[in-house]
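Most newcomers find our protein records easier to grasp once they have seen one. To make this concrete, we reproduce a full record directly below:

…
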Amino acid sequence: MSMSPLPENLVLSSGPTDMKEVVDTKSDDPSDQDGNQGIISSIDKNEPLVTRRELWSYYLYYNGDNGVGPLGYTQTLFQGLATAAGYDPVAGPGSSCLGNTASGQCVVPWGSGTKSVSSVVLVSNGVSFAIMTAIFTTIGSAADYGTFGRWLLFAVTVVCWAAQYACMALTSPSRWVLAMILYIIGFVSYGATLVFFAAAFPRLARNTPHTRNLREKYENGEISPDVYEQEESLEKNRISNISNVHGNVGFVITYALNLALLLPMMSNPKVDNYVLVL
């Protein structure tokens, strides 16, 4: 039996003696090679040009959508009301969790028994994440198609605002269950605003005057696909980074306004309700 190696550019077929030559399909044409280096996403010619005013509207939106209310004070208000409504399991029903002789434990009625306040808060967080998972894995992808994402963003923003303003009605410990519901609604809708807001970045980036100009150059063969893809990616990053800066600025301003109420009204039992309005 011959031990010499098989000739190059040959492959064995399923038969014992048949051989076929491997054909190198790589083109020597530089234009063909450039065309195979990357895939440029299609663009809808009907998409409007993104103006500076539209970009700033998104920046200022994120300035207010900073999460201080739904992620901070709503949960604080919910946990505070639940603690005030609960009792010390060591002392028994009718006792206070906030008394000087309290053991540090606190339970509230839950189903046919009781559950600690900390467990109730964890349950509400778990329910919130379960709802967000269900939403984002079903209708979440709809934000990437056409103009539907803008309407989704508008809808969840209104729901988030409504949930926070409804917290003004949480004026007594007996409403801790309502506080839990409003917290879940606010938390879920706030998370949805972040997802649907970020989904707008690709559309914004590919329709800025700078990117449109690059697109024309690419279609005219003046720049390569790699250059265009890199520039579009940088445009997305630029919009995202500026949005994050505005979000942090809004975060600081909102907390400063909150402190303007919290410090002089710290003894007022409804101070958290007033802060949520901001």
Summary: Residues 4-37 have pLDDT under 50 and may be disordered. The CA atoms of residues 143 and 199 lie 6 Å apart.
